[in-house]
Amino acid sequence: MTRILLVEDDPSIVSSLTAFLKEEGFDVETAPGQEGALALLERGGFDLVLLDVALADGNGFAVCSAVKKKSGIPVIFLTASGDEFSVVTGLDLGADDYINKPFRPRELISRIGSVLRRSRRGANLLELGDVKADLEKGTVTKAGRELFLSALEYRLLLVFLNNRGVLLSRARLLEEMWDMAGEYVNDNTLTVYIKRLREKIEDDPQNPVLIRTVRGLGYKAGEA
What we know:
Blueprint: E1 3-7, H1 11-23, E2 27-31, H2 34-43, E3 48-52, H3 60-70, E4 75-80, H4 84-92, E5 97-101, H5 105-121, E6 125-128, E7 131-134, E8 139-142, E9 145-147, H6 151-161, E10 167-168, H7 170-181, H8 187-201, E11 211-214, E12 218-221
Parallel strand pairs: 1-2, 1-3, 3-4, 4-5
Antiparallel strand pairs: 6-7, 7-8, 8-9, 10-12, 11-12
Helix pairs in contact: 2-3, 6-7, 6-8
């Protein structure tokens, strides 16, 4: 199910739009302001963000900038009719589309579908620094040179690539590896595979920058 984060501070819009989107088969979470939106985004798992410019705290531009810095999640701005400055600023920050308020619900659904299709066409290539994974071909390259990964190393890399900027606990990684590999992966095995993966994708495996250890908490993928 497609998960949408709706960032909007008008309770009436939140209520009506959430109900409509759920009827259309979307899973929706909401936040009234910048702080709440960023906290939800840190957890990850969203496919698209619907974002108002004016928020209860902060603003939509800061949220859009944070989204685009950490992930490739598409963003659609909800803007006041005729607010050309907000439209241009949002697009300059990497927003994928905008729709003027008040909008027709069916038009919004059409825009969401179009943005998701464009996003998914580019989702077959995932990048982390100079490491690229081509999901269609099942290949991984570093600085243009193909890497040869075992099945579990490849699956572990995909977990990190799909959660760039997100803090992943060892328990979360073990759950992901179990689901993807269909076989038991214990804590010691996870340590071994993280070490092997770093040896293949890091310039200096002793001082990793692509998959960093967050002491006592887990790991986070993304260049420092």
